[in-house]
Amino acid sequence: MKYVDEFRDGALAAKIAARIAREVQPARRYHFMEFCGGHTHAISRYGVAELLPPAVRMIHGPGCPVCVLPVGRIDQAIGLALQRGAIVCTYGDTMRVPASPAAGAAPGALSMIKAKALGADIRMVYSAADALKTARAHPAREVVFFAIGFETTTPPTALAVLQAAAEGLANFSVLCCHVLTPSAITHILQSPEVRRYGTVPIDGFIGPAHVSVVIGSQPYEHFAEEYAKPVVIAGFEPLDVLQAVAMLVRQVNDGRHEVENEFSRAVTRAGNLAAQRVVADVFELRSSFEWRGLGEVPYSALRIRAAYAAFDAERRFGLHYTPVADHRQCECGAILRGVRRPADCRLFGTVCTPESPIGSCMVSSEGACAAHYQYGRFRDAPSVAAPSA
Amino acid sequence: MSFKPDYIRPLDLRHGRVDMNHGAGGRASAQLIEELFVRELDNEFLRQGDDGARLPAPPPGTRLVMATDAHVISPLAFPGGDIGCLAVHGTINDVAMNGAVPLYLAASFVLEEGLPLAELRAIVASMAAAARAAGVPVVAGDTKVVEKGKGDGLFIATTGVGWVDERIHLSGAHARAGDVVLLSGPVGEHGVAVLSQRESLEFETRIESDTAALHGLVAAMLEALGPGAPGLRTLRDPTRGGLATTLNEIARQSGVGMLLHEAAIPVRAEVRGACELLGLDPLYVANEGKLVAVCAPERAPLLLDAMRAHARGRDAARIGVVTDDPLRFVQMRTLLGGRRVVDWLSGEPLPRIC
Known about the structure:
The structure holds two protein chains of two kinds. Chain A has helices spanning 10-23, 37-45, 71-82, 112-117, 128-137, 154-167, 181-190, 192-195, 210-215, 221-226, 238-254, 273-282, 313-316, 332-336, 368-376; strands at 30-36, 56-63, 87-91, 122-125, 143-149, 172-178, 204-207, 231-233, 259-261, 283-285, 288-291, 295-298, 302-304.
């Protein structure tokens, strides 16, 4: 496949890996957080970690849209379908995230896919435009698009709202759970584990790929400077990740903390201005939003402006948000902050598996737990010798 | 007044639809069976019109093999085939994976009220063509009708029987460390062809389903190996759940691990492209005309040559080895040079979003 294979080339990977190994200094530490689930997935799926020297450690960040969605938001979406009879359209990944259990039921007993089996009309869509199509096809039903994701999925939601307004679609609304990358990164950098206790050593970030296409590289400049952490924006292909690690290693060695752009084939400093305008037209900042794992994060999410109130499911259905505590032993929160690793969690691989996830990190293949379970689990078993063949 | 012979107006195969009468067991049922099913699937056993088919006993030195498969695919027709030929190929392949010669099929049809007779006839005709091409007749059948909304147009369950040389013992439990894993051709075509027709996706593709009967390929492989097929441990067709799931099944049954080489696994560029767009992994996408063989290392070159000499195995490849691993991990050396687990498929393959 042209334009993709070039970024998965094994020979080139070996060269970059050798260069990283050469440049890593024995006395230094290189702990880098890849913010995005897309990077987590690429690292696991292509076995990138194995190509890195032991001194370089990758810490999985919270950039997995499904993972950071709190239980209370899933409950809202299920409630709209089950109690209000709405057609709820959602991205596929969201379907399996555990919701609050019904009274007396076991944790993980309800999710959108299980609500569907109970009769809820929940439909998987590939885009916000598909949700609009559904609304047009069922004018007598309420159709709600469950809008989740970072800055990558926000512009299409904004366009869907604008399109619905232009058409005067009276039965379409959006349950907006869009969240913002820079505020999440700042939140992690300000967390006591990073700042005060130093229990989560972070020496640099691999910056988001698709998110940065939209917002540009400029928003990261502030915290590279303020927190003295290098940032390298990288694409989602495995060679992008390796190259970004090489660039971070150099910055650490040189004592620099700059925003560098490895993904220059798609990311500019200013980003996609047209997309930013559409988003600004439809959405405004929420003063606070609950993230799973990070808790309430100020100014970290978007809601629909009053001018488009008719398309805001929260206003339209008079929804109130009720926070719901995670399973007591679930470590998703600590894992999303980089404090713990998936295998540290007592639920990992026992009661919490991709078949019956307890925490959200086990749901999406971009989640740290699911990626480790599906691709990297063999590393936890020292008895398995690396076979040679 | 003269006696009027029993006259029934022929089925309206052009505009008619299945209704509840067709399942009631009366004249309408008999008419549907005679004018549509028996006419299309015609053979000496069906023509007898009895409740079951009387078949020749297996010759000495053989054992009977039996397999069954239910087909519930949506949409009913897809690029490269339909539920009719799929129902024939699926069961023939299950019989053939035992190293057997498939001989006879039986088919049960669950029809949904309202299904156009023209559509039903096209599907039964495709089934008949597949059965004829494979030389495996449908010798017994049954039809039931369910109310509208209680079936997805049409479900077909087929059962097959065949004979296997009693010296041949193939099983998913026979793989052992050091064995070689062979694959008969590129993976993912069936699943991508079907997905491309789903209402919510509808993407343009030239990819066709690989649905095909594999007993010819199996016969060629067994012949190359000689009497008793020494060294051949396992044959399996990687259908639902794809190659990854099939290899995990074998690893679990045999109590072994595997190490695959991503670079050696054939995947057509169109399939890779479609999977890339949909966020799917071709290793988890269904096939309907491929097989996996596990064999002793010294037999692998011979077996691979025999596969490549057959039309259904032209792109056959050696994709990995069986390893000694009590944890039964199927691992893969990636294109990039790293290593990863190739795990079981979990849930429906849901596309990723960003």
